[in-house]
Write a structure and sequence with these properties.
Blueprint: H1 13-22, H2 33-37, H3 41-57, H4 65-73
């Protein structure tokens, strides 16, 4: 099976439930605890993964300690 996330307006819940029921077990609804606690979990995870990759491959511009404090003082 392939796992995909689908977002839909709550007004379509009945239609989604009907589609799942008609699928004969080929579509399964799985509740993901992370999404209940934080609906933007995967967006932030993707952003963090990109930042970590940029740090690892050296493409992220690093600021000096002095530059950071100078920016904070502004």
């Amino acid at each position: 099976m392939t796992a995909r996330m689908i977002r839909y307006d709550e007004s379509y819940s009945g239609l989604i439930d009907e589609l799942v029921a008609k699928s004969g077990g080929n579509i399964e609804i799985v509740d993901v605890e992370n999404l209940k606690l934080d609906p933007y979990f995967y967006e932030r995870k993707t952003s963090l993964d990109k930042t970590i990759k940029a740090i690892d491959d050296g493409t992220l511009e690093m600021l000096s300690h002095e530059d950071v404090w100078a920016d904070l003082e502004k």
